[in-house]
Amino acid sequence: MEEKKAENTVRILAIESSCDETAAAVVENGRWVKSNIISSQIPQHTVFGGVVPEIAARKHIEAIDWVISEALKGADMTLADMDAIAVTYGPGLVGALLVGVSEAKALAYAVKKPLVGVNHIEGHICANYLENEDFAPPYVALVASGGHSHILYVKGYHDYEILGRTRDDAAGEAYDKVARAIGMGYPGGPKIDAAAKEGNPEAIHFPRVFLEEGSLDFSFSGLKSAVLNYLNQAKMMGQTICQADVAASFQAAVVEVLVEKTIRAARQKGVHQVAMAGGVSANSALRAQMAAACQANGLTFKVPQPIYCTDNAAMIGAAGYYAYVAGQRDGLDLNAVPNLSLAGEN
Ligand code: KG4
Ligand code: ZN
Fold first, then answer.
1. What's the pLDDT score for residue 305?
2. What pLDDT digit, counting tens, does each position of 275-322 carry?
3. Dist CA 254 CA 247 (whole Å)
4. Which atom of ligand 1 is nearest to the CA of 251?
5. Contact status, residue 309 vs residue 336, Cβ threshold 8 Å
6. Which of 169, 120, 167, 173 is nearest to 146 (CA)?
7. Alpha carbon 77 to chain centroid distance?
8. Are strands 115-119 and 32-40 parallel, antiparallel or unpaired?
9. What's the CA gap between 109 and 122, in Å, rounded?
10. H or E element at residue 154
11. How many CB atoms lie within 10 A of CB 238?
């Protein structure tokens, strides 16, 4: 039985297909997840050691109708119950994005509902509002995913200032590349996370790259090279490496820099709250160390449940809600923008 909809309830059907998950969700008022369906393509890409864009697009086409109907079914609703349809239109793989964008446009046209295009990174940030009534800007956010690593000052729901970003690899990319080098396969993040629990984070000293004094940017390619050099040297000397120690030592270097710079940013901006988002924020060591550092600095710390850290559509429903109530309406000319930047980014 469907509950009666309160006067001011806004229901969004959200669609996400920017990388290797095809996802749909129904979210109420940007906060309450009525359903969250994710069809992962990870097994299809694992054999290739990473995401193959062509395969991703094809798999999205196969899964998109199913995830949407499951999301509506799971929420016990129909398209007619929705107030708007939100969809990720960038950044991401163009062929993958186009599947979600075309589907959202077709549905919006067919059932005459407003269409709202959402930035994927903004979606990650807004995952912090899910299942949580009280969290609100201003705060400093660390967004660390497979494609992006940013520190942002979130002034309002749709008002961001970029304080720092990666100059080369994203944090998740470094995890994935290092995992591949130590023979753990794709996706590397969760595998390193698990292996590191068995290893000694002080076994090998890998560099912590802080860049120039005061900079809130990141650089992870030097760390990745240091791990590769360590592995090559061990190989040349005929030594067997301890995967768990390499994983733990690499992770310690990444986490230390992410935590330290995020805390510095929060101090610089004088905020009282810190949030974290993106696939890497599912990492157990990062969650524990960021929580401890925030506590030591008198900052409130917020991070989504792991399922809302990695790619999902509920987060697009949260971001879509705030765009919708701010009056954003997109036309049927909405297109995929693979290199879409965040508002204020140059
Ligand atoms: O946000 P996301 O699902 O997709 C992008 O927008 O990129 O992030 C995926 C990234 C991958 O690089 C993956 O290895 C990493 O997040 N990741 C993790 C963990 N779970 C996913 N990295 C470290 N620890 C994890 N537990
Ligand atoms: Zn993502």
1. 97
2. 999 999 999 999 999 999 999 999 999 999 999 999 999 999 999 999
3. 11
4. 23
5. no
6. 173
7. 27
8. unpaired
9. 25
10. strand 149-156
11. 6
User: Which strand (E) or helix (H) includes residue 314?
Assistant: helix 314-325
Which residue, chain included where needed, has tokens 């949260």? 318
199 pocket-lining for ligand 1 (C-beta < 6 Å): no
* Phi, psi angles (nearest 5°) of residue 205: -95, 105
- The tokens of 291 are what? 């929580």
Taking the centre of ligand 2 as the mean of its atom positions, its distance from the CA of residue 120, in whole angstroms, is 6
Task: Quote the ligand 2 centre to 235 CA distance (angstroms).
Answer: 35
Calpha distance 198→193 (Å, rounded): 10
Separation of 75 CA from ligand 2 center, angstroms?
Answer: 23
Contacts of residue 298, defined as CB under 8 A and 6 or more positions apart, other chains included, come to 272
Give me 270's structure tokens.
Answer: 């004088």
pLDDT of residue 345: 59
CA 211 to CA 222: how far, in whole Å?
11
The contacts of residue 97 (CB under 8 Å, 6+ apart) are 17, 18, 88, 89, 90, 336, 337, 338
Angle CA(91)–CA(92)–CA(93) in degrees, nearest 5?
145
- What residues of the chain score a pLDDT lower than 50? 1-2, 346
With contact defined as beta carbons under 8 Å apart, do 140 and 152 qualify? yes
Identify whether the C-beta of residue 244 lies closer than 8 Å to the C-beta of residue 111. no
Q: Please give the model's pTM, rounded to 2 decimal places.
A: 0.95
In this structure, are residues 17 and 7 in contact, taking their beta carbons and an 8 Å threshold?
no
Rounded CA gap, 199 and 223, in Å? 18
